[in-house]
Amino acid sequence: MNPLVLAGRETLTMLRSIWRNRSGAFFTVLLPVMFLLLFGAINRGATVQLEPHGPQIGYTTFFTPGMLGMAIMAGTFVGLVISLTIMRDNGQLKRLRGTPLPPWAFFAGQVLSRLVLVVVEAVAVLGLGRLLFHVSLPPSATAWATFALVVLLGAATFTALGVAFTRLVANADSAPALANAAYLPLLFLSGAWFPINGLPHWLGSLANDFPLARLLDGMRQALIFGHGPGAIWPDLRNLLVWLAVGLLVALRTFRWERAT
């Protein structure tokens, strides 16, 4: 079969599986939108300051990329850690290895289905943010391209890290707790909800080394200030490094069977 057709069919299979899991679909797609509507309504008219001496911007303009970053990490990293661990524990991954389906096609379906979710989430979050709260949109084609690049690179990075992280999960029962132990602290430390300029210097510097903070900064720079790839190169470089680390660890340590 044509490799592209094979990857496409596996992507559709993964998407159907995700949408049939109503609790997972709610957590991945609807929860960030609900937070956007709730916090946007509560903080309508409020302003925040990105840096100690930086310009004031609307809270909803600041918060919207934060919710998109939340959705990206939930749909890729958290979703993959939980789903792959469950498939490993119940023997699905082991059975897949015995079928003609190539491993690359299985992972292509996982990656592409997650990217589709990210695109849907980006359209929903930006559309509702603009419609209800007058959130700024990228002011030029270059800024739009930069924003899309950051979003896709961030999604790829957290996808690779999610596959790599499964090596640390002993069983499916512990997967949600371990995934959220990484996910929830990063949301707060990376500035998804509020600016992090009030954090102690050492903690702020540590948070900036993690990919979520760089993803959020890159999206905000393109969305709010219209910056291009050159201006956000440090953010892109950080995401590329984490992507390489995630791919290397995933390729070397991923298990198809539960440890005995």
Summarize the structure in words.
The chain has 260 residues and is mainly alpha-helical. It has one domain (3-253). Helix content is 73%, strand content 2%. The chain is built from ten helices and two strands. It has helices at residues 3-20, 22-42, 59-89, 92-97, 103-133, 141-165, 175-189, 201-208, 211-225, 233-253, and strands spanning 47-49, 56-58. It has a two-stranded antiparallel sheet. β1 (47-49) and β2 form a beta hairpin. α3 (59-89) runs parallel beside α6 and α6 packs parallel to α10 (233-253). The longest helix is centred in the first third of the chain and has 31 residues, at 59-89. The protein is globular, with a radius of gyration of 19 Å. The relative contact order is 0.14.
Keywords:
260 residues, mainly alpha, two-stranded antiparallel ribbon, 10 helices, 2 strands, 73% helix, 2% strand, globular
Describe the SSE topology:
Elements: H1 3-20, H2 22-42, E1 47-49, E2 56-58, H3 59-89, H4 92-97, H5 103-133, H6 141-165, H7 175-189, H8 201-208, H9 211-225, H10 233-253
Antiparallel strand pairs: 1-2
Tally of discrete structural domains: 1
Give me the number of helical elements: 10
Strand order of the largest sheet: 1-2
Supply Rg.
19 Å
Range of strand content = under 5%
Structural class: mainly alpha
Low-confidence stretches: none
Order of helices and strands: HHEEHHHHHHHH
| Rounded mean pLDDT score | 85
Distance between the termini: 35 Å
| Main sheet record | 2 strands, antiparallel
Total number of strands? 2
Q: What spatial form do the alpha-carbon principal axes imply? A: globular
Helix content: over 70%
